[in-house]
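Case study B.
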Amino acid sequence: MEFPRIDGVRARAYTVPTDQPEQDGTADWDSTTLVVAAVEAGGVEGLGYTYGPVPLTGMVTGVLGGVLAGRSAADVAGAWEAMGRAVRNAGRPGMAMMAISALDVALWDLKSRLLGVALADLVGGAHDEVPVYGSGGFTSYSLSRLAEQVEGWASAGIPRVKVKTSRRPQEDPARLDAVREAIGHDVELYCDANGALGRKEALYWAERLRAEWDVRWFEEPVSSEDLCGLRLLRDRGPARLDIAAGEYGYLLSQFRDLLTGGCVDCLQADVTRCGGISAFVRVSALCDAFGVDLSAHCAPAVSAHACCGAVHLRHLEYFWDHVRIERMAFEGILDPSGGALRPDRSRPGHGLELKEADLEPYRVA
Ligand SMILES: [Mg+2]
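Model:
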């Protein structure tokens, strides 16, 4: 088959207010910006996206769009390498890699649409369904809102939920009591500190979380840049409390360092930050080499497809903000009932279509 050449790259940004103010261990926000990248070849369009600042649109259509113009739609790996080289002096980790991630997802989607196959199959097809965990539980929520949200996931058959902690640690016992009461004892409970705690404070909370609320997952108890701290938590923390990090990994070497440092029981990676599907499958291979599971961070609509290529996949984060925005933004959203997303293998690509008219009120670029 002869693949067409790329003849168009577009970008849009939409800033969508949250349904109420949100807060975690180290951040506050009241809106989320979705940056959509579209790549066209031979009259077919591939769609990708990331969650990040508005100026990403300029990187997508500017320096990176220039790299893609005229390139064969078949050559996703070569495009990924060339985009990385093109942003060397701008700084590859961070925003540049978010822009590359959105375009890489669009390129994978484009290629699978041209081939007429589902993205989940093109990326590997190792899984038919991707387990999810409900994620939200912001530290700005009232106890009743917190309980209502986690109960919603549990009653949809999602057997694991994650809440934010550690913003005001003295409030966490009452919050976790409310969560346990809402979900019962058969649903796994995870906590995410977003790097808010110091090492010894994190160790203290690790013991309490495991003993008092049967918490099984403690995410970024310390900053994910504190590799020694994560290792300390993993070595000295209680058994059956997994330490997880990796959502801010932008380079393959950052994931390698978390693994070689023995920092995590389960590695996380975000398809929309780490470099797209091309990078996600490489992170997955690193996990295979180290015998560590991989969990996908956020952006569930597209991550569900990427996860089908990860052999040692544990689960995917079904994040409140992104679920809400992706339902507004795309046709073709997957249903998490029963606790898993099942990509539709009959639809080419990731099967998502942008609802541009619905999104127009939120368009900022
Ligand atoms: Mg997190």
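Residues 121-350 form a domain with the TIM Barrel fold (CATH 3.20.20.120). The remaining cases will be described in the next quarterly update.
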